[in-house]
Amino acid sequence: MELRHLRYFVAVAEELHFGRAAERLGLAQPPLSQQIKALEQEAGVVLLDRTKRRVKLTAAGEIFLQESRKILALAEQAVLAARRAARGETGKLVVGFVSSAVYGKVTSIFRIMQEEYPDVSLLLQDLSSIEQVEAMKAYRLDIGLILPPVETDESLITRVIWREPLVVVLPRHHRLAGRKKIAIRELAEEPFLLVDAPGFLDQLVGICALAGFSPGIVQQARSTPTIVNLIAAGIGISIVPASLRNLHRQGVIYRSIEPPAPTIELALMWRKNDRSPALRSFLEIAWRVAGLDSSA
């Protein structure tokens, strides 16, 4: 039994006239009559009571009409759902992100994705860059927002979506708190708190080395917000992405770094062989938010 047989039957049942039903379906009447007879034989019941003057549904035909309409409606829903999935309008994406990213433009990507594709479920996971690489290779993650450089392999694609300046974060009553801008060399004797991210750590060590000193790291933490909270307790100072200014924490202040201020990059990472339409939709929104050419 095929869907077209159900459509033929519904047309005849609604018109109660083979000629009008055939015209509605764009068929000749004899083939339509033959298809309905074949349907009745396959079902093993008489669905239509026919005379020369009228066509009437039998009791079995009434029930079959109700069920046929349900099946056809479900089939139509399945087609529409498949088309929406193909356009990236439905599905699920597991998205990893470094904690500092949510204080910048990343949240705009999440918001726009929910607004434009409300039926795509975003499962967000706060993971370090290295953890994201491991999860991506194990197919536990669909897309990641990482702090490069991170060691990957040829199965993964990474693309920097924006850069932002770094700033110094200090306890509110620090000796340098009254300065609008701070030179890196002025931090040479300070106890540093840094996020436990190898790429970012290497970058900060390099920045300090250019200023002529090696940072005295007294504490490392998994997330940048944790670092900020520890600084509020007076434990040390740090250098963080400028977007962390949006993290309003009593007891800390943020100060710009004297030019040329160092910058940090945020990159998207995804699997090269992933052809998910939902992933494509996410990437297109990310390029739009970042002001990048999606074809580059």
Describe the structure.
This protein has nine helices and twelve strands. The chain is an alpha/beta fold. It folds into two domains: 3-86, Orthogonal Bundle (Arc Repressor Mutant, subunit A); 90-290, 3-Layer(aba) Sandwich (D-Maltodextrin-Binding Protein, domain 2), CATH 3.40.190.290. Strand 3, helix 5 and strand 4 form a beta-alpha-beta unit. Helix 1 (3-15) packs across helix 2 (18-25), helix 1 (3-15) crosses helix 3 and helix 5 (106-116) crosses helix 9. The longest helix has 28 residues, at 59-86. It is rod-shaped and about 105 Å long. The model has no long low-confidence stretch (mean pLDDT 90).
Task: Give me some keywords for this one.
about 300 residues; D-Maltodextrin-Binding Protein, domain 2; 2 domains; 12 strands; eight-stranded mixed beta sheet; Arc Repressor Mutant, subunit A; rod-shaped; two-stranded antiparallel sheet
Short description:
The chain has helices at 3-15, 18-25, 29-43, 59-86, 106-116, 129-137, 198-210, 224-232, 277-290, and strands at 48-50, 55-57, 90-97, 119-126, 143-146, 156-171, 181-182, 191-195, 216-221, 238-241, 252-257, 263-271. With 296 residues, the chain is of the alpha/beta class.
Backbone CA Rg:
32 Å
Give the count of helical stretches: 9
- Unreliable stretches, pLDDT < 50, 5 or more residues? none
| CATH topology annotation of the largest domain | D-Maltodextrin-Binding Protein, domain 2
CATH class of the largest domain equals Alpha Beta
Overall average pLDDT: 90
Beta percentage is 25-35%
CATH-level-2 architecture of the largest domain:
3-Layer(aba) Sandwich
Span between N and C termini?
50 Å
Helix/strand order: HHHEEHEHEHEEEEHEHEEEH
